[in-house]
Amino acid sequence: MEGMSTIVKKVSQLVAGLIFMYGIYIILHGHLTPGGGFAGGAIVAGAFILLILAFGSSALNLKKEVAGSSNTESVAILLVVILALMSLFLGAKVFFGNFLPKGEAGTLLSAGVIPLYNIFIGIEVAGAILTIFLALVIFKEESSK
Amino acid sequence: MIVYLLCFVLFLVGLYGVITRRNLIKIAISLSIMEFSIFLILVLIGYIDQGLAPIVNTNSGPEIYVDPLPQAMVLTAIVIGLATTAMLMAIAIRLYRKYKTFDIREIKNLRG
Amino acid sequence: MDALIPLFVAFPLISAFLMVIFGKLVKGFHRFLAPITLLALLLLAVYEFTSLGGTSQAYAMGGWTGKEGSPLGIFLVLDGFSVIMLCIINLIGLVALFYSLSYMAKYTAEANYYSLFCLIVAGMNGVVLSGDLFNLFVFLEVSVISSYALVAFGVGKTELEASFKYQVLGGLASMLILLAIGLIYWQCKTVNMAEVRAAFDGSYSKAFYVFVQVLLISGFGLKAAIIPFHAWLPDAHSSAPSPISAMLSGVLIKAVGIYVLIRLFFNMFVFTHEIGVVIAALGAISMVLGSLLAINQWDVKRLLAYSSISQIGYIVMAFGMGIILLLRGNNEAAAVLAIGGGIYHMINHAVFKGLLFLNAGSLEFRLNTRNLKEMGGLSKSMPLTSTTSFMASMSISGIPPFNGFFSKLVIIIAAINGRFYLLAALAVLVSIITLGYFLKFQRFAFFNKAEKAVEKIREVPFPMATSMVFLAILCVALSLLAIPSVSETVLRPAIDVLIQPELYSTTLIGI
Known about the structure:
- The complex is a heterotrimer of chains A (about 140), B (about 110) and C (about 500).
- Chain A is mainly alpha-helical.
- Chain A has one domain.
- Chain A has four helices and no strands.
- Chain A is elongated, with a radius of gyration of 18 Å.
- The mean pLDDT of chain A is about 85.
- Chain B is mainly alpha-helical.
- Chain B contains three helices and no strands.
- In chain B, helix 2 (about 25-45) packs antiparallel against helix 3.
- The model of chain B has no long low-confidence stretch (mean pLDDT about 90).
- Chain C is mainly alpha-helical and about 500 residues long.
- Chain C has helices at about 5-20, 30-50, 80-105, 110-130, 135-150, 155-190, 195-200, 205-225, 235-240, 240-270, 275-295, 300-330, 330-365, 385-395, 405-415, 420-445, 460-475, 485-490, 490-500, 500-510, and strands spanning about 55-60, 75-80.
- Chain C has a two-stranded antiparallel ribbon.
- Chain C is globular.
- The two termini of chain C are about 25 Å apart.
- The relative contact order of chain C is 0.10.
- Classes of the chains: A mainly alpha (about 140), B mainly alpha (about 110), C mainly alpha (about 500).
- Chains in contact: A-B, A-C, B-C.
- At the B-C interface, helix 1, helix 2 and helix 3 of B face helix 5, helix 6 and helix 9 of C.
């Protein structure tokens, strides 16, 4: 798949960073404003997909990219389950319990373990959507050879 | 009441698409339309009259908020719908590679 | 112990994703981790079964128990019925996984297979354990989406077409289920099954109630492949790799189809006479039509898939009879027999149908064909496959002393006691037809004169042979469940938790 024209490439280079930062903002403030892990992860994946569409898949090493995103996704899910299991031993000793100190309501560092879940789920969803997209691109490359 | 009926009409539109369309991609898109109509019904169920969006502002006193539980359910269901659509698209692309067509009337190897 | 309950879901999730990461680095990692995971799950299930002893446990995730002012959270419920299902799921999972250690060696993306297998087991464990409707839906989707991928695993033409058909119908079913969950939330303002029961005891509109029940029967009927919702089953179960066919036909349609139907209709809804009649009628029609459609098949796995529809019809019919008998009120012994027969037949069908699909897989592994007309005379060259297949065929047709005879006998006795003479006659007739087409399977596969040269066929490798022999031994051992003292300890807690719906809501959650 080839890239697009120079204007598209330059503008997407400028905008992709902003989209990435916006996605991280949505993930981090998941316990205060709407959004959270799922929505923020989809936005972060959108930043990457925008760059891949603008520059074309011939500018990438596709196998390495898809291995990277797949491993990121799996590590993030493992961290979620390990965090849930860790709360079996600390704090209230229940699965999925909230064992970190809860600060005051409304600040960024509050609500115990929920921002950590949001971050890991955000990384996971971004990795998953990126893996799906790259797998479809690889399939198209292979079938058009 | 009329909004629920409209969402149900959207569900029936999706169902009509799944049953009558011949192109694999159109079947997948119609299934997605059905899913989205159910999400709309779920979110509309949680509406309370004169309720605000359920974002707690710690400075103000108690308010009337709309029900946030269906909204949390719909967030999860959207991600499940994404996984379903991705699976369908992957299989559709592989079917195209094998049969060289997206037409469902050509793909009839299994009978009986 | 209480804290072990979430491990049924956490363990296979962790090992599935560990296999994705390390499968590329360490060769053979997946062949080592997956059997250990399923063995640990099976030991946990057996431990919970022995230590439960008729009580029920509810585990509140995150500590939200509904006491001290916190609202009702998400519960995982372990009672007599779910612990039996857990044992079946993990046992058949372990046996099918052991079988696939040598069967899947010729596929290229083997590491993905094992992680998808662990995800299916995780999803099914979650469905069986969950105590509220939306959690059930999420785990249902986890297991069903993994099964879509596994049906299409060897990417040939027939597998992909079967998987596409399966996915469209399965997606439709999930949409109906989600719509029903939404409507229940609208009426009851909760999705916790115990609270829904309490809410439905008050006043509700009859038309709405019937609409929700019809949606749920359609949705879960599509998952359980009752007639008229069976169209995906012959294609999907015959095109999947054989250990996956054993998992799908043996456990998946029970855990996400029949188990949820029974749990919802017995413990969440108040029975009505019409629903009992509908369920019993659907079961009876599936039973008859499934076996009639199976007579004509020459593809081994398609024949076994149609016979699955027929046996599922037995189970659903038994539960339908149980509902009608419980509503009549004067014949509780017959109702207990009917429900007990249904649960016993569920256990038996998982074992012998799993064994039959593993046999068909052995035939396909050695002969590279599924057509009965091309096989023959294999009883000398594949003795273990032939013997275990003969035992499984005799079990499913209901010949003593195998387990199928006893469970079908219990269902027929319950039908006669409850004066459903037509259903009893149909059950006996279908049993005879089942014997007919399984004798056809035995004759053409093993005892006929060989069409082509079959002298070079050897027996299957050690893991496949061991799994088949283990299931065959279970086929004989499970007939011991018919002894009243054994079935009191094993089946009676499950029947109690279904017959007394207050046990679910009041003692567990404290509503």
